[in-house]
Amino acid sequence: MNQLRNIFQGCVFAALVFACSAPAPKPTGSSVPDLGWLFLDKGPYTLTTKVDAAPGPASFALVTDLSLMADAPEVVLSSDVQIGPDSTLTVPLGALKPGFYQVRLRDSVRFNIGVRPDDVVSAPDALADFDAFWAATLAKLSEVPLQPELKPVPEYSNDVRSCYEVSYPSFGGAVSGGILSVPVAPGKYPAIISYMGYGAEPFYFDPSSNPERIEYLVSVRDQGIFKAGQDRWIDRGLASKEEFYYRGAFADAVRAIDFVASLEQADTSRIVAFGESQGGALTFAAAALDKRLKAVAPSVPFLGDYQDYARIVWWPVHEVFQAADAEGISREDLFEMLKYFDIKNFAPSVTCPVYMSFGLQDPTCPPHTNFAIYNNLGTADKRYLCVPTCGHEMWQQPQWSEERSDFLEAHIK
Questions:
Q1: Is the dihedral of CA 401, 404, 409, 412 positive or negative?
Q2: What is the full DSSP assignment across 68-128?
């Protein structure tokens, strides 16, 4: 019981106390056993869980996640139920289509369940010139000399590893870079690239940890070490694919690989990457655009399946809509432009091994959008980890940190 309760720390979920199943073992395949809210077989299904609600009669409804932003969400099941004396809820759900649903119990309890996520269908919708557009972008990037500048950071350096703040020109002449920790001893070392979340604060590596690794925390343009008080990027340049912010940011993700590969100490055959949220999107984009990544471990990836995304969550979609409206951009033109930056359209080009994690209760990068990416990956060597009680903060999950580390380690030995 204590082990299950510990899972909840740092999670965002709606009034649930604990799942009645045992903790999931370490994953060994493409999916993980559920904890009562993630159903992997073909049904019919029965939801059995304990809830933070008083015993007695209660209203129960199950709505589709793709209708959460609608004026009237789609209810697929509605019934009166009985919460047991020990707060156990048991509800026959019958047969459900693959996807994600929100449970609504009384007026206060809300939580998500998932059904056969491997079978969620959200086909790529890349336009005919998608590949040509990104080939042209990379060609322009290659014309920009790397010319890195490394500023020593003595307080995070010692006789094991040296730390630097790095900057270099990237696509369009914008500055990107990051924080580098590199072994002092001569030799060739594997490299782990980490891409940062949207607006996340940068951090510095412990110089005494991972002495046999190059670690590089990437700051794309105007974020990370270059943020300087800025807090919005997703609504920049919405009028055209040429000017949209993420054209440059995705190019910066590739430029980070250029930089790491240029290091004298780098073993270029052993470069891996990971990232959470926006960092997960950058990880996938980098893997699609640059085959030097040997394996990737993205978590709760952002920027996937834009049109469905807008049907599930409010933020940051409303910021994009507000900016588009202010510029007189129609919804149709907006979504056409965004197809060039939809991670599900990059997914077929990701051919390296992938380990993805997601939180079933994620209100920011909802599971449907994660699987719109995952189910379209071009690699068969893929698997995922679900923490059913977790929201967006998968980086706070010790299980994921351990699993991710083991996965990446296996690919840089």
A1: negative
A2: TTSSSPPEEEEEEEEE-TTSEEEEEEE---SEEEEEEETTTEEEEEEE-GGG--------T
Tens of pLDDT, residues 57-115? 999 999 999 999 999 999 999 999 999 999 899 999 999 999 999 999 998 899 999 99
Rounded Cα gap, residues 54 and 87, in angstroms = 6
CATH architecture of the domain formed by 2-119? Sandwich (2.60)
Q: Are 166 and 219 in contact (CB under 8 A)?
A: no
Cβ atoms of residues 343 and 284 within 8 Å: yes
Burial class (CB in 10 A: 0-12, 13-18, 19+), 239: middle
State which amino acid sits at residue 245: Y
pLDDT tens string 34-67: 457 999 888 899 999 888 889 999 999 999 999 9
Task: Answer yes or no: are the C-beta atoms of 177 and 226 closer than 8 Å.
Answer: yes
Structurally, at CATH architecture level, domain 130-410 sits in 3-Layer(aba) Sandwich (3.40)
**H or E, element range at 410:** helix 398-410
Note if the pTM is more than 0.85.
yes
Give CATH 2.60.40 domain extents, the chain: 2-119
Domain with CATH 3.40.50.1820 in the chain: 130-410
